[in-house]
Specification:
Blueprint: E1 9-12, H1 18-29, E2 33-38, H2 42-54, E3 58-63, H3 74-82, E4 87-90, H4 106-132, E5 137-144, H5 146-149, H6 156-176, E6 181-188, H7 194-197, H8 201-209, H9 219-230, E7 241-244
Parallel strand pairs: 1-2, 1-4, 2-3, 4-5, 5-6, 6-7
Helix pairs in contact: 1-2, 1-9, 4-6
């Protein structure tokens, strides 16, 4: 099913994190050339590239702060390095400034929207232009179950930004249909990553209790769905939101 991944050129943003690194290793395992984007995780990214190469794969790291205008340069940098771009995975994301709704400030709101919606759109726009002239491609956006709940009392801005990302998916998928550019969203639930491990034990237990399967997801659960969408198994899928959340 995943033989079509071999030799694909795949760029993953936020690839030094828990879900991102899992995706990078999985795509490399199936023979893809993988671009590891990072902001301040240089050492993790370097180790990840080394691991991919030790296993006979092809990988390279690309640094960019996605809250800055200059971040769009990673698309041409990736294309120059690998000779093309087949799959863009907009995985990078975070809630900047965990504050109560009544205390939420404009800077936290703006940075959260920039990272989770603005940057993914303009990266996708740049990738779209290349894919349009080169037979198509895949754009896969990573959203969050927070969209379903409107975020929490401290993450409304994060949920709103991810909701915007899902709308971007729908819009791009309609434009991409004529050019074989398939655009989908994977909405991740509560996944066992370093980001969620920062929560207190009681908060984690309370959150897990909300999940019908009564356990957190694993990074590979999300990575597997992304791999599916990037492969020939996803050839007839576009404009869809796939939830990986244990029934949540």
């Amino acid at each position: 099913m995943f033989e079509s991944i071999k030799n694909k050129k795949v760029l993953i943003t936020g690839a030094s994190g828990g879900i991102g690194s899992c995706m990078a290793l999985l795509f490399a395992e199936y023979g893809a050339s993988v671009g590891i984007h990072y902001n301040d995780g240089e050492r993790k990214s370097s180790l990840l590239v080394d691991k991919i190469k030790k296993n006979g794969g092809n990988g390279a790291a690309f640094q960019a702060d996605l809250t800055k205008e200059s971040s769009k340069s990673i698309i041409p940098s990736f294309i120059n390095h690998f000779g093309g771009l087949d799959v863009l995975i907009n995985n990078a994301g975070a809630a900047v400034g965990l504050k109560d709704i009544l205390d939420l400030d404009e800077e936290s709101w703006n940075k959260t929207f920039w990272l989770n919606a603005r940057a993914p759109f303009f990266l996708a726009q740049s990738a779209f232009k290349h894919m349009k002239d080169n037979g198509g491609g895949r754009i896969i956006n990573i959203s969050s179950i927070s969209v379903k709940y409107g975020g929490s009392s401290q993450t409304l801005h994060y949920g709103a930004a991810k909701s915007a990302l899902e709308t971007i998916t729908l819009g791009l998928s309609k434009e991409g249909a004529d050019y074989n550019i398939l655009v989908n969203t994977v909405r991740a639930g509560f996944i066992d990553t370093p980001m969620h491990q920062k929560l207190g034990r009681k908060d984690v237990e309370k959150r897990i209790e909300m999940i019908p399967l009564k356990k957190p997801g694993r990074p590979q659960d999300v990575a597997g769905m992304v791999l599916f969408l990037a492969s020939e198994a996803g050839d007839f899928l576009t404009g869809e939101i796939f939830t990986v959340a244990g029934g949540d």
